[in-house]
Design goal:
251 residues; alpha+beta; Arc Repressor Mutant, subunit A; Endonuclease, Chain A; 2 domains; 8-stranded mixed sheet; two-stranded antiparallel sheet; 10 helices
């Protein structure tokens, strides 16, 4: 006997497997029934039916009719399946914060991204400019060498009001960096810039924004690494504050 595929699918969606669905639907369709009758309707072998019936009874979806010479079974009301689904959904909803906590524990591992093209590096610089605040250890003069006009573009974005990033930057004590720093300071009051000669020979820029650390190395081809972790500001910002206190203010 062919069973309704739509009803079988609904039972499977409710958590029953294929054999459980076929046997439950067979019992439901005839009321009190024997394994022999279930076999005819479900087209399953009787040894399998006995095993599956035990599972359905344990789950509360079937029961044995007492005082029958031949073992007779009955499907419980379909409302029992609906009630179990609702209970499961309610329990899952209540436990959802715990599941999220477990997921967050895994996601706390640092996320590391690499960018080795000018387009990729520019994308990160644009991302930084959209932040509320950031701190830098960087050379604008060196950046202009690899990205011609970058400083002018940033100054223009401040003039137009497009760039609202509040930043503090420590630059090398090079004449070109000092000049660019003064240009920035004349354009906007959202930036503070100081200088430290200890970074004169450094060939690397560092930016900290949000929970991200961006490190750009300038060799023959610029290369940028972004490390995303809640530990980034906790670790790096105190170091930056020490350097900032020892840096010379540019006016």
């Amino acid at each position: 006997m062919t069973q309704d595929p739509i009803l079988l699918k609904l039972l499977k969606d409710a958590g029953l497997d294929d054999k459980e669905s076929r046997i439950y639907l067979a019992m439901l369709s005839v009321g009190h029934t024997t394994v022999q009758d279930i076999a005819k309707i479900s087209e399953l072998k009787r040894p399998i039916i006995y095993v599956v019936l035990e599972d359905l009874i344990k789950k509360g979806f079937a029961n044995i009719i007492p005082n029958k010479k031949i073992k007779t079974y009955q499907a419980t009301d379909p409302g029992a399946i609906s009630a179990q689904m609702q209970t499961t959904a309610k329990n899952f909803s209540e436990m959802l914060p715990i599941f999220k906590t477990l997921s967050n524990q895994k996601s706390q591992k640092p996320k590391i991204s690499f960018f080795d093209t000018k387009e990729g590096i520019q994308k990160i610089y644009d991302e930084i400019n959209r932040q509320k605040s950031a701190v830098f250890i960087a050379s604008n003069a060196r950046l202009n060498h690899y990205f011609p006009g970058a400083s002018k573009d940033w100054q223009k974005s401040y003039k137009t009001g497009y760039n609202k990033l509040i930043s503090r930057t420590i630059v090398p004590h090079h004449p070109d960096d000092i000049k660019i720093a003064k240009d920035f300071l004349h354009v906007t009051d959202k930036v503070q810039i100081r200088t430290l000669s200890v970074f004169d020979e450094c060939n690397m820029d560092i930016a900290v924004y949000g929970n991200k650390l961006a490190i750009t190395t300038f060799e023959d081809v610029p290369f940028l690494v972004v490390i995303e972790s809640k530990a980034v500001p906790t670790f790096f910002l105190p170091i930056f504050e020490i350097l900032w206190k020892n840096a010379k203010k540019i006016t």
